[in-house]
Amino acid sequence: MSGNANPSNTNTQYCIYDEPTCQYRYTKAWAGFLIEKMKIDEEYISLYNS
Question: 12, 25, 33, 48: least buried by Cβ within 10 Å?
């Protein structure tokens, strides 16, 4: 198994590790955070600048 030695060590406001499926579940708060960030032109453009 590779990856984080402690996958459940997340900011639970935004992300929760689901042990049975070994996957991360993202919260509505995370979606809201991303939506607000993408309203800022510089943030959006930075995704496409390397």
Answer: 48
Say if residues 43 and 37 touch (Cβ distance below 8 Å): yes
Low-confidence residues of the chain: pLDDT under 50 = 1
Q: Which residue has the tokens 């406001």?
A: 13
DSSP state of 10: S
Q: What is the pTM of this model?
A: 0.75
The vertex-25 CA angle with 35 and 13, nearest 5°, equals 65
Which phi and psi angles does 15 have, rounded to 5°? -150, 135
